[in-house]
Amino acid sequence: MRTDPSDNGGLFVGRRPGTAPVHFRETPERAGELRQRVDGSLARFMLAGITLLCLLCWGPIPVACLWLGSKANYLTGSVSLGLLVSFAALFALLFGTLALMKRIDGAWILVRRAAGYDQRVGALGRIFAATAVVCALAFALWFLVIHGPGTGLVVRGG
């Protein structure tokens, strides 16, 4: 990191507060092999949970929010209220899911370290990117091959 005052607004000449290098304690005593295997299995289970929650963000959660908005529109006859319900539900569910995934990712780091791996960063960013690519490819396959972009057009021969 550079210590040029223009990098930090001129407030500090040295390192910015809270940016000191992280110092880990000495290597902890490892538990038995059985305990490490259990921790490894728990870490895999947590990783699968994060992946499942990420996949929910790309399809089922938005569809459920649209369904809630349509029910609000049907019951009240107000399109504006239906849109408000949809957006409020989408905001709450997506950000709630992201917060839950972040907590699980932090716990996953700790469990991985307990299983004997030198894990310092989480996997949430990589999982989120991978699920985005997989879901985009699945949508493209559905749209271009299964459903077809011109299925609703009627062509009359002449």
Structure overview:
The protein is an all-alpha fold and 158 residues long. The chain has a domain at 33-139. 65% of the residues lie in helices and 0% in strands. The protein contains four helices and no strands. The chain has helices at residues 33-57, 60-76, 79-114, 124-147. Helix 1 runs antiparallel to helix 3 and helix 2 runs antiparallel to helix 3. The longest helix has 36 residues, at 79-114. The chain is elongated, with a radius of gyration of 24 Å. 9% of the residues are buried. The mean pLDDT is 84.
Helix content: 55-70%
End-to-end distance, in Å?
72 Å
Shape: elongated
Overall mean pLDDT score? 84
Nearest-angstrom radius of gyration? 24 Å
- Which percent band covers the strand fraction? under 5%
Number of helices: 4
Uncertain spans, ≥5 residues at pLDDT below 50? none
- Counting DSSP E segments of at least 2 residues, the number of strands comes to 0
Structural class: mainly alpha
Major β-sheet profile: none
The helix/strand series, from N terminus to C terminus, equals HHHH
